[in-house]
Automatic annotation (TrEMBL):
Organism: Rhizobium herbae
Keywords in alphabetical order: Membrane, Transmembrane, Transmembrane helix, Transport
Entry's transmembrane regions: 20-41, 53-71, 105-124, 136-157, 163-184, 222-240
Similarity comment text for this entry: Belongs to the ABC-2 integral membrane protein family.
Protein name, as recorded: ABC transporter permease
Length: 250
């Protein structure tokens, strides 16, 4: 715990070493991404599917995607950039990966709490304050571990195939179109529903939205499916990280 705490403080200082609050600029980019989609869909005359605000509906869909992408990318890149800290006794690359993921977790959580609070304060939606916070706790716990495991797997695959980093970047971006961000999967044709149900990110999006919309349909959402993916991905990621560590050691 002391090692991870020290690395977390080091990571925050490094990110803000040149300019104060550099992290905020990355988060503002994510918020502008959400607002940009809201403006586009408003201009196109997109009708509300649920709730009273298109901005809130889009935000509750895009946030899980950005959260997943940010933590998985940071966890993977930390293993590659850990040479500066692994020379210190008792510090492993995995410790640095945990620290960077934790910093990303805190940054995104604080930024989006402020974003949803702003929607509520500006009276843009009466659903901006979650009516049931428990699904958010479940969502944060599972998606953080899932994203961290994906990051460890990506680090191993990137070591074997350097082009994988580029491929995953494309894959993580197109996830936005297959995870129920701009639509509700239950309202899709049966064939499309069956295909989308295999995507674990779609389940995480649905879980997050259930905290805000009491009538959000959850026929496709499966807690066991999310738990299974989270456990499997995390165990595989840790195993591959250990294999990669042993390979580098020899």
């Amino acid at each position: 715990m002391r090692i991870v705490s020290a690395l977390t403080i080091r990571e925050v200082r490094l990110r803000n070493s040149k300019h104060a609050f550099t992290q905020l600029f990355d988060l503002l980019e994510a918020l502008f991404f959400i607002v940009g989609h809201w403006i586009i869909f408003t201009y196109l005359g997109r009708h509300l599917i649920i709730g009273d605000s298109l901005l809130l509906f889009i935000a509750t869909g895009i946030f899980p995607i950005l959260f997943f992408r940010a933590i998985s990318v940071k966890a993977a890149s930390a293993l590659e950039a850990s040479k500066a800290v692994t020379s210190i006794p008792f510090v492993e690359a995995l410790d640095y990966s945990i620290a960077r993921s934790f910093v990303e977790f805190l940054s995104f959580t604080v930024a989006f709490v402020a974003f949803f609070a702003m929607i509520g304060v500006l009276d843009l939606s009466r659903f901006a304050v979650p009516y049931n916070p428990f699904p958010i706790v479940q969502f944060l716990a599972m998606l953080t571990l899932f994203s961290f495991g994906i990051g460890l797997i990506n680090s191993f695959l990137t070591y074997l195939f350097p082009l994988w980093k580029f491929c995953f970047g494309i894959f993580s971006r197109i996830q936005i179109f297959f995870s129920g961000v701009f639509f509700i999967p239950e309202y899709m044709p049966p064939q499309a529903r069956e295909i989308l149900a295999y995507n674990p990110i779609m389940h995480f999006v649905a879980l997050f939205r259930t905290a805000f919309f009491s009538t959000y349909p959850t026929h496709l959402m499966s807690m066991n499916y999310m738990l299974g993916w989270t456990f499997a991905v995390l165990m595989l990621g840790l195993a591959l990280e250990r294999a990669l560590r042993n390979h580098r050691a020899h």
